Amino acid sequence: MTVTTMRRLAAVLALVTLCATPFAVAAETARQILDRRKALDDGPRHWTDRQEHMKLTIVDRRGSERLRDLIVFERREPGDEKKSILFFESPAEVKGTGFLAFTHKGAPADQWLYLPALKRTRQITSQARSESFVGTDLSYQDLDIIQEMPSWTEDDAASSLRSEETIDGVVCHVIELAPKREDIGYKKIVLWLGKDDLMPRKLEFYDAEPEAAKRLLQHDIKVVDGIPVAHHVDVEAPRKGSKTTIESSEVRFNQNLEPELFTQRALERGER
User: Which of 50, 80, 116, 186 could bridge across to 74 with cysteines, CB 3.0–4.6 Å?
Assistant: First the structure.
């Protein structure tokens, strides 16, 4: 067999192999994964309102603990807007403290804190967004980010798929988000989404490298009314050496919460 004949045969075999092989399926991008999660939230997992009790355990670097009990109400509005209000029930020094937030798509939230001892409502300004929320390891800005993040697009934060990792036995997509909006406040956010349920298992917030400023881990995910809910959340601040644990209970969806609950008047009146 001549060299020319061999080359022709090789070309024919390559063509046959190409024709016989199905077209390769392109790997899913980070944005496609995030869009699938959004579709679940807007479809099978959609809810109109939500309420739950939370127990906060705040541990400082010396190991001292403070406990907080509160009740939280949320209501979803058109256009990926949300309204949230919460009331602290104990201990005595924070009882009656309330917090109201209107989460906006593509813009900072409007937030108010009611302090019963002063009988005064304080609006959280842009300068105060980095302050600690009632002594926890979450800032007012963090609360806004966690609420708004599911509706982000590439205009809000560029997404890239890093790898796969296992968290608590769950294989997760690891997605890096590079915020483009100044009001988000972080240079990078890394998100671990379960491959099967697309529920966040872990988030890391970076304002500088290499150490995360905040780390959030979600555990004990249970399905309530067809919607997966994390019943235990750990918020860590590695630089401070502190930690806030959030335990959720009595989670309920679609209770027909009235719009009047999510107002400054209701905030100052307190839980009813």
Answer: 50
